[in-house]
Structure formats: C-alpha cells, structure tokens
Write the structure tokens for this entry.
Amino acid sequence: MTITRPTSRELIAAALRDHGGILHDLRVDDLADEHDIVLRRVGWRLVESGDVEAFRTGRRLLDKAANGRLFPPPHPRWWVGPGKRVLDVDASLNPYSIELAWRDGKPHWEIGGRLWLHGEDRNWRWYHLLHIDTHAEWARTSICWLRLGKRMHHAV
C-alpha cells in the first residue's frame, strides 16, 4: 500500500474544483503568492463559508499551511493576555492541543489537554477557546484562563 501526501498545489486545485461556488470571487492575483499564503487564504474562506464539506477541505488546507501547528487567525480579538489576577491560577493543560472543530453548524476553536488542577491529574478535557495570549502560554476558555504546558505535535 502506498500512502501519498498531497502537495500544496494539488490541495489548492482540488479546493477550486470541488468548491468553486464558494471560491467564485477569487482572482488570479489571489493565487499568485507563495503556496502557504494561498493555502491560508483559500482555507480561511472555506472554513468560514458555513458549509461542512467546505469546512473540512479548508481545515485540511490550513493544516498543510501550518505544518501541524494550527493557531487561530492573527486577529487582535484572539491574541490577548491574561489579567494580573489570573496569573496565580493553579490550573494548566499539559500537554495541550488547539483544534478547529465544527460544532452546531459553524466552526469553533477548541483547546484540550491533560487538565492539572493543584498538581493533580484531572484527565483529558476539551474547552471552547475564547482567547490565547501572544506567547501561547495562557488560554482563556469559557471557564477560566488556563496555563499551557507543552504543545502536542500532529502529523499532517
């Protein structure tokens, strides 16, 4: 059995072929940059389209562009820091992973990992990700800010 990994060019061509209706307003100039820039540009458009199949294709493009370390987009609303009063919180995720998931008909960022509370292992948990600090040391979830330990690497 031969396992092949598609190239960036093959992924972009497949996205244009399969999701031409969503990508109808792309210009030739949009496809003229380096492959990872085009992968991100097309990937984010597919992820945010509202279609689950386009989301899966866009996610695959973003994974390829990120080389296994996908983070939320570089938008100021994602990248904030924790307040001074939360720095003494004794909850952490180690190891952790950030995932772009499809929930309730739209894309959501989730963060999960081994939850450690007061030095005690509380098992693997997933949380809705609201913010992450600029150095990826803290993540704000719907519950509280969590300290981040080692990031898991995923094969793409």
User: Anything to note?
Assistant: The beta strands are 91-103, 106-117, 120-132, 138-141, 145-148. The mean pLDDT is 84. The chain has three helices and five strands.
